[in-house]
Every structure is written in structure tokens, then in C-alpha cells.
């Protein structure tokens, strides 16, 4: 007999991304291989809330929800009590704290986060810029970039760039190779927008080895040897010190964590 599958229900009157992010962050703190997340978006009626809580009760799951309309939040609260289901209100306490502290009045309009406002178009522009500036495609773009990531191959430059772009930042990244002198423009940039990425040699060897397997290249290629990795990391660290830029060790860090370290200074 296999382990019981535990179910978390993510419920929202919008797309549920906020609640899902909190749930996924929570799951990572546990050995939760037997957990499944079910998302229910665009909840609009009390009947939908009632049905969802009943389903959660049947499988002994719990609910994480973001509901803007007070009547839906109240229905969720009542049904959860009636059926003894844990239901976590992700947004309600935050909205109440805003009201109590700043005496504000919420719009109570669903989906505001995803409306096509100025910030949305700023994010689109940032993503387009970042894609076009990936992997040193256009070194001159570093002048216009708000953040420039530099580091050896497979130190998470591209996924980190895209993540930051979705936050609205124009990002360029450049791969460092000992045999290739970095473009002169890197030395002209404000060090505050340069981020040097590094990683433990052991982890970088593992990642590169998996990369070789994925693309069908022979195991043991120089690219993934400990000696080559040590050489590249030493070259990168020397350059970082020369540039005077911030250095982040991304070993065992999630993209979100690294991004948080970068944005903390901005």
C-alpha cells in the first residue's frame, strides 16, 4: 500500500496565483512528496464555496484561499467550521490590517492584480528586453539594463534574469569564460547594478554533468570536470573583486531567494 495522498485546495475569485505561491513555499519546508495541490479559480458564488469545502472534507484536505468579496470569505469561514476543515485566509487579514492601520476602504474588485495597467506593460517590456539580452547576445544592452548578471555557465543566470524581468526589471546577463575577455562595457558599468554569481564547485559539477546527459554529450567532457569548474569559478571571483560588484553564492538557493537578495538593495 502506498502512502496516502494529501490534498491542499487553492481557492480564489481570481486565478489563485497568490495563494498557490504561499502553498508551494510551505510545501518546500516539508518532506511532502505525497501532497497534491488542486487549484480552483474564478470562484463567484456561495454555492461554489460550499461545494469546494465539502470536497475538501471528503479527502481530509485543507484550503488556502484568496477571496476579495466579504460574503464569500464569510461563507468559506462558516462552511469550514461546519465541516471541520482547516481553511486559511491568505488575503483577508492583510486587507483588515490595511483598513485598521490606514483607515482605507478596499475596492472589493477581483482580479486587480492582473489588469492591463502601466505596470503590466512595464513587465512585458522588461521580459522582451531580457530575452533579447540573454547570454551576452547584445553586450551594448548592458547600458540600458537595470541589473546585469555575470557568472560561469549554469549558475542560474537565465532563469534568474527571466524571474526578475517578470518583476519589471530589465536584465542583461553575460557568461564568463576564462579564455574570453569580458567586453569593455562591463568595466564601465556602475558596480551597483552588477551581480556576480557563484556556486560551490561540487554542485556546479553535478549540474553540468546532468546538462551533458540531457543534450546527449559524452560523460566526462572537460566542461563538467572539477578542474575546469574550479578554473572558471576562480576566474569569475577575480573579476568580481576587480569590478567591485555584489557577489551572490547561489548554491542550494531557489531562484526566488536569490532574486530577493538582489532586490533587497534596490
UniProtKB/TrEMBL annotation:
Q: Which Pfam families match?
A: Kinase-PPPase
Q: Which residues cross the membrane?
A: none
User: For this protein, what is any one GO molecular function term?
Assistant: kinase activity
Q: Does Isomerase count among this protein's keywords?
A: no
Q: Quote the EC number.
A: 2.7.11.32, 2.7.4.27
Protein origin, superkingdom: Bacteria
- Under what name is this protein listed? Putative pyruvate, phosphate dikinase regulatory protein
Q: Which organism is it from?
A: Paenibacillus alginolyticus
Amino acid at each position: 500500500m502506498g502512502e496516502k495522498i494529501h490534498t491542499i485546495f487553492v481557492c480564489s475569485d481570481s486565478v489563485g496565483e497568490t495563494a498557490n505561491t504561499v502553498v508551494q513555499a510551505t510545501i518546500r519546508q516539508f518532506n511532502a512528496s505525497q501532497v497534491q495541490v488542486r487549484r480552483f479559480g474564478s470562484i463567484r458564488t456561495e454555492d461554489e464555496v460550499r461545494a469546494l469545502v465539502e470536497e475538501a472534507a471528503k479527502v481530509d484536505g485543507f484550503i488556502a484561499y484568496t477571496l476579495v468579496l466579504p460574503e464569500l470569505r464569510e461563507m468559506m469561514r462558516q462552511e469550514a467550521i461546519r465541516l471541520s476543515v482547516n481553511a486559511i485566509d491568505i488575503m483577508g487579514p492583510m486587507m483588515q490590517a490595511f483598513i485598521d492601520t490606514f483607515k482605507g476602504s478596499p475596492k472589493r474588485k477581483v482580479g486587480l492584480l492582473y489588469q492591463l495597467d502601466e505596470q503590466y506593460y512595464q513587465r512585458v517590456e522588461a521580459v522582451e528586453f531580457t530575452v533579447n539580452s540573454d547570454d551576452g547576445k547584445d553586450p551594448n544592452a548592458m547600458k540600458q539594463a537595470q541589473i546585469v548578471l555575470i557568472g560561469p555557465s549554469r549558475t542560474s543566470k537565465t532563469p534568474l534574469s527571466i524571474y526578475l524581468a517578470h518583476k519589471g526589471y530589465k536584465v542583461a546577463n553575460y557568461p564568463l569564460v576564462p579564455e574570453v575577455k569580458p567586453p569593455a562595457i562591463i568595466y564601465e558599468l556602475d558596480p551597483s547594478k552588477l551581480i556576480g554569481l557563484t556556486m560551490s564547485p561540487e554542485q556546479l559539477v553535478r549540474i553540468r554533468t546532468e546538462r551533458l546527459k540531457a543534450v546527449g554529450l559524452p560523460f566526462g567532457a572537460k566542461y563538467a570536470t572539477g578542474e575546469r569548474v574550479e578554473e572558471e569559478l576562480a576566474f569569475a571571483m577575480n573579476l568580481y573583486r576587480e569590478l567591485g560588484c555584489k557577489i551572490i553564492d547561489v548554491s542550494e538557493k531557489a531562484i526566488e531567494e536569490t532574486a530577493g537578495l538582489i532586490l533587497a538593495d534596490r
